[in-house]
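Reopening this one. Same input as before:
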Amino acid sequence: MTDRVTTGSDQDDGRRAAASAVVPEAGQQASGGDPEHTTAERVLGTIGTANRAAGSAESRSASKLWWDADADDYQAEHGPFLGDEEFLWCPERLRERQAKLLGEVEGKHVLEVGCGAAACSRWLASRGAHPVGLDISEGMLRHAAAGNERSGRSVPLVQGSADMLPFAAESFDTVCSAFGGVPFVADSGQVMREVSRVLRPGGLWVFAVTHPIRWAFPDDPGPDGLTAVQSYFDRSPYVEINATGRATYVEHHRTLGDYVSQITSAGFRLLDLIEPEWPEDHTEVWGQWSPLRGRTLPGTVIFRCLLPE
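Same output, byte for byte:
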């Protein structure tokens, strides 16, 4: 799971200021810095945000830049929560061994999109599956390789983007993604089409993303994160830039309806839409996710899709 949105993953942890973003004047510091990501911001020279579009190539470039720079800090912060060999769908602590959203995986060829350190893939391997972990970031794949060595599980790792999957048609029985890839590409409909291409008929595509309703709220785990400050229907991307205007982090927003339309247009049948509730005994804060917000707002949505035979 590599999502930073206000969490420590992709989310934005307060990184995605929910109001109009402004680029600071030259020589000024960007406001609202996120201590969790200061190393990446320093390395990349991030100065603030910009109200502008970001296309496919720029979004891919920014994702690679960001996750390469943030990989060590991200893993240091969240590695203990994610584990070396565990399949966590979301900060709400929903585990695949309980949810069984992928069904029986023994003997199946499974692609994990946006695998990060590949803990999910190694869990799948422990259940008899033949997983492949894909991530755009060399830094994240370095941690995935280290996890392979620690666990003794040699999960194949491939560098690539979710909207340009480097695999032949009908290569996999199942494709999954736990907060990886989908929010960071400019055209998530292309991700759905690519997954449909590499999936065998009758296969499952299951992916988790930040619940779209969170886009309207500040990425704040406290009381301020309970008041909507922008439109849920505003699909403008969140773009961070350096002094030259180059994007150093990009995240895209889609509504629930957008996702459903993209899923069905790619030939899938939507089997289920899951909104995990915050467990009563879960007291940890993960970026924007917290017990306070979790009791009031959904933080994650999981789509379970079937490619008909």
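So the earlier flakiness isn't reproducible anymore. For the record, Residues 4-306 form a domain with the Rossmann fold fold (CATH 3.40.50.150).
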